[in-house]
Amino acid sequence: MLAFVHIEKCAGQTVHWILRSAYGLNHCDVLPWQGYNAMSPLDGYSARDLRQLRTVYPRLKSIAGHKVRIYTDLKQAEPDVRFFALMREPLRRQASHFQFLQERRQLPVTFEEWVHTNDWGPNWQTRMLTGTDDVSEAIRVLENKQVLVGLVEHFDESLLLVKQLLAPDLNISYERKNVASDKTLANQLLADKRTRAILQEQNQADLELYTYVKNELYPAFKQEYGRQLTEDLHQFQSNRGQFHKSRVWQSRLYRNLIYMQAVRWHRLRLRKSLFEVFAPQKWQFQKPQQAHHDG
Question: What pLDDT shows up at residue 295?
């Protein structure tokens, strides 16, 4: 089973569409059954979540989502799970993330307020991938878990690596999704010396891990692929093809109509159970009995 770790603003939406197009009803964009805290990079999709998911997707071939983590216990439920992710140059990724939140979510704060008052920013890629800011530990986790980490800057080549090294049955034909048409705000943050210095301060671990992936890990994947990679990349870029639209819509409809309803009912039952446990006891007041006196 493929498991895609979706880091914000790292071409994740396009990868989601590729997986839907390739596997249709056997792919799921997952959410934890217990609830979802988007601000926390330290919790993730668990073996328990995956076992429960298989009751809805018995022929599951791939999962993807912001809560898929390589450092959770997923392998207890799926020993042969194969993780992959995409990293992006850290300063550009964080600048793009802020622009996205400003434009799509109408974020009512300045860039300086955003980076200093929330957990979205600092070393986000390192924490999402490995659950730590310690680069040495992060490298150890990536190597021990045998995670294929591609690069957004080499997106097509990264897809070929995933197909060749992890999933030969993966159809990687695609059309780009969720691409910012106007990058003015992100470019301003990168060009301004003050905000660029903030970005560098926020991403020290990410910059170090990205350099390691770019200069050591990613070239090792290319070497494992072999000399044919250059020719295969040329052929792929000459004809990327298109999404298998019917599989995409089957996947989305099944997720919305079946899976999401199951998740909602599970969470409702969980909240009801918690309420029953922690709700104050209902005291029953009885009318005092009138005393009887002998005449």
Answer: 40
Residue percentage of the chain with pLDDT more than 90: 74
Q: 3-state secondary structure string, the chain? A: CEEEECCCCCCHHHHHHHHHHHHHHHEEECCCCCCCCCCCCCCCCCHHHHHHHCCCCCCCCEEEECCCCCCCCHHHHCCCCEEEEEECCHHHHHHHHHHHHHHHCCCCCCHHHHHHHCCCCCCHHHHHHHCCCCHHHHHHHHHHHCCEEEEHHHHHHHHHHHHHHCCCCCCCCCCCCCCCCCCHHHHHHHHCHHHHHHHHHHCHHHHHHHHHHHHHHHHHHHHHHCCHHHHHHHHHHHCCCCCCHHHHHHHHHHHHHHHHHHHHHHHHHHHHHHHHHHCCCCCCCCCCCCCCCCC
pLDDT at 276: 53
Report the C-alpha gap between 80 and 3 in whole angstroms: 10
pTM passes above 0.85: yes
Across-strand partners of 63? 3, 28
Cα separations in angstroms, 72 against 3, 6, 77, 158, 229: 12, 15, 11, 24, 32
Cβ within 8 Å of residue 248, ≥6 positions away: 17, 20, 21, 24
Give dist(CA 241, CA 175) in Å, integer: 8
Q: What is the pLDDT of residues 143-183, one digit of tens each?
A: 999 999 999 999 999 999 999 999 999 999 998 776 666 88
Q: Mean per-residue pLDDT for 213-238?
A: 97
